[in-house]
Every structure is written in C-alpha cells, then in structure tokens.
Amino acid sequence: MININHITKWVNSGSGRIFLLRDINMRIAKGEFVSIMGPSGSGKTTLLNVLGMLDDFDEGEYNFMGEQVHTLKERRRSELHKNNIGFIFQAYHLIDELTVAENIETPLIYHGMKQSERKAAVADMLDRFTSWARKTCFPPSFREVNNNW
Questions:
Q1: E strands in 39-101
Q2: How does pLDDT run across 111-134, given as a tens digit for each residue?
C-alpha cells in the first residue's frame, strides 16, 4: 500500500542544506499498523506530512496504492489524500461548538457519505472507544472526562 524508497527532504540555509529526512525507506502493507518514534526534531512530523501528501520531498520515490505519488499532478494527489488518508493530530483540534458525535461525523459529511451510513459509522466509532456516554458532550467537558481515565 505504501512504499517509499530513498526519500530525502531538505531546506537550504546560508551554510548549505539542512536535511529533514535523509534516505528513508519504508514499506507498509494494507492493514498493517506502524508506529513512528524518535526524539524531538528527528523528522517524525516531516515524514508523516510526506506520507500524508501534505508536503513534497526532494529526492526518492513514493508509491501509494500502486500510484507513483512523486509523478502525480496536485489534483490527483489531493484526491488520493482526501479519499484514503486521515490524521489525528497530537494536539487534536475538535470543533468546540459540536458534540463528540458531531465531530466524528463531520469528515464523513465532507466525504459525501449518506446519512444512514454516517450514523452507523459514528455509532461504530463510539462503540469501539466506549464513548457512548460522551457522545453528546462538547470538547471541553470531553477533555475533562478523559483526564480522569
């Protein structure tokens, strides 16, 4: 599903290139879970931004679901990202005016999912994370509840 070969990314500075990623190789199969760990400043976020097609890279090859990402036009890249990639940020940003259930449902609306399918998907997520009791909570109270876990 994801195959990157010799990915390198740098920024130019007055003293030359500063490498953000250097010669990264990785293969992730469909259904596989991968953890990316390392010290602060080691390139984890940069790598995730490249994998998520949010940032470009300077050298190497990136194959996503059989497509060579590094050769795609921006429109196709955006389409692949929209239909296949999701991020949960470290400092998650929920919409304070929406309930937990509504926050889960929002990206599904943008994805064009039918209402009945959305409701089922939201119910499944709430069930998976045993969050039924919090489905009508708003993010600040949800955070308070989670701090007590």
A1: 59-64, 67-68
A2: 888 999 999 999 988 888 766 677
pTM over 0.85: no
Who's near 100: CB < 8 A, 6+ residues apart?
Answer: 94, 126, 131, 134, 135, 136, 137, 138, 139, 142
Query: Which strand ranges, in their side-by-side order, compose the sheet holding 16-28?
Result: 16-28, 2-13, 59-64, 67-68
CATH architecture of 2-84: 3-Layer(aba) Sandwich (3.40)
24-73 tens-digit pLDDT: 999 999 989 888 999 988 999 999 999 999 899 999 999 999 999 999 99
Ordered by start, the domain boundaries in the chain are 2-84, 100-147
Q: How far apart are the first and last CA of the chain?
A: 35
Sequence-distant (6+) residues with CB within 8 A of 54 are 81
Q: Please tell me the distance from the alpha carbon of residue 123 to that of residue 131, in angstroms, as a whole number.
A: 9
